[in-house]
Write a structure and sequence with these properties.
Blueprint lengths: L2 H17 L1 H22 L7 E6 L3 H11 L8 E6 L2 H9 L5 E4 L4 E3 L5 H18 L25 H32 L1 H6 L5 H31 L7 H22 L6 H18 L11 H7 L3 H15 L7 H21 L4
Parallel strand pairs: 1-2, 1-3
Antiparallel strand pairs: 3-4
């Protein structure tokens, strides 16, 4: 590789991006919107986990009375919703819109036999009755099997703490694939690559410059999103920020190299968009961005391992939530490095100037 040619192409690509005010403005505005959305969605008090309807002739007064008499109605993380009409409320239980429904006047309650939340609330109800039978708030031993109660304390791992690595990686994925893929296809369609072919510039030098140019932009955006959102939400972080930066840097290189591989021989922007969507959407849903793959079909879990996004998210979550070091995430780092090298080499071999 000729360093001078590489730096010339890198500088030219950076100047092109900076002069494109619409693209530059969007890349600055988009992180701000993400930060604002996270701050709005996850700030404030934690949401109640269960919804229980309470029906009576005067539901608010009746609910205040039973709270003093029955421990179940003082249970935390349950939202008790006054209901003025019984039949529509029963329908909501059928449709899982309410997890449980009480008729306080007649002493009845309804649950949906297909609802896991309804099952758990019924167990809590039985436990609360036993507590009351034991005398006020003093718990009694019921079917303990000889076990003794122990307690621990610690900070809750919220869903936002769990999902933020996936959000950052997903944003990185779209910026890598579409930001690089469309640029290469546009160059080829406009004849820019044909002119570059007449120069001593090699395909590897050109593609490497594209990787580095996109890499600094993606990392700047990812850091901006993380720092900005963390000011409002205060993410859980038990590991090293440098290890996290290394994981995202390697992940970005692998995703950018994948985008270059997809656009290595394509001339049509429509075809490029279709192929990039074909790659990105299955990767987003099978890599554990929004939900864990634990307990999923073993074949699906193995299929997810072929995507670099899976290894990025797994390593980032291990560092942030479990406090893992480089040794613990070494497998993911090796896989991402290998994928980056393979994608970049294949892209250079298959690359077509015209």
């Amino acid at each position: 590789m000729n360093l001078r040619r590489f730096l010339t192409v890198l500088a030219a690509r950076n100047r092109e991006f900076i002069r494109d005010r619409s693209a530059l403005g969007w890349n600055i505005l988009f992180p701000v919107l993400i930060v604002a959305g996270f701050a709005f969605a996850f700030s404030g008090q934690p949401l109640d986990q269960y919804k229980v309807g309470v029906y009576a002739e005067a539901p608010l007064q009746k609910l205040a009375t039973v709270k003093e008499e029955q421990a179940f109605f003082r249970t935390s993380y349950i939202q008790f919703i006054p209901v003025v009409r019984l039949d529509p409320a029963i329908i909501k239980v059928e449709r899982h819109q309410l997890d449980m429904l009480f008729d306080l006047d007649n002493g009845h309650y309804w649950i949906n036999s297909d609802s896991p939340k309804g099952y758990m609330l019924e167990r809590v109800l039985y436990g609360a009755v036993i507590v009351d039978a034991g005398g006020g708030n003093a718990p009694v031993a019921v079917e303990s099997g000889g076990y003794q109660r122990q307690t621990v304390s610690g900070r809750e791992i919220r869903y936002v703490d769990w999902v933020i690595p996936g959000i950052l990686a997903m944003n990185m994925m779209f910026s890598s694939l579409f930001g690089v893929g469309y640029v290469i296809v546009r160059y080829r369609k406009n004849g820019v690559l044909r002119r570059l072919q007449a120069t001593p510039l090699s395909a590897f030098e050109f593609l490497s410059a594209q990787v580095v140019s996109r890499l600094w932009l993606i990392m700047a955006i990812s850091i901006m999103v993380y720092v900005g959102a963390n000011l409002f939400i205060d993410f859980t972080m038990f590991g090293s920020y440098w290890n996290l930066l290394l994981v995202f840097s390697l992940g970005a290189v692998s995703l950018i190299s994948m985008g270059l591989l997809v656009a290595a021989r394509i001339r049509s922007e429509e075809l490029a968009g279709g192929i990039l969507n074909l790659v990105s959407w299955p990767m987003m849903f099978l890599s554990g961005v929004w939900f864990s793959l634990e307990g999923a079909n073993p074949l699906m879990q193995k299929l997810a391992l072929i995507f670099p996004l899976t290894h990025i998210i797994d390593a980032a979550r291990s560092i942030m939530i479990d406090g893992a070091g480089l040794v613990e995430v070494s497998t993911q780092l090796v896989v991402l490095t290998a994928m980056s090298a393979i994608f970049l080499l294949l892209g250079a071999v298959l690359f077509r100037w015209k």
